[in-house]
Amino acid sequence: MGSKLRRSAQFTLLTIRNGQPSGLQNVTLQTNGRFDVDDWVPLSALTTTADL
User: Fold this and answer.
1) What is the mean pLDDT of residues 18-28?
2) Residue 43 neighbours by CB under 8 Å, 6+ apart
């Protein structure tokens, strides 16, 4: 009674350190059941339009 993904699904893990958000990591679940995990990115490395 299981189901299979029809297309890839992506989600983002948020890392918390000392009660504060510290980084992001994208994860993609492929239709064949494989997880593709991107490198962890510290929030300090991200740029927003407010920073420009």
Assistant:
1) 95
2) 21, 22, 23, 24
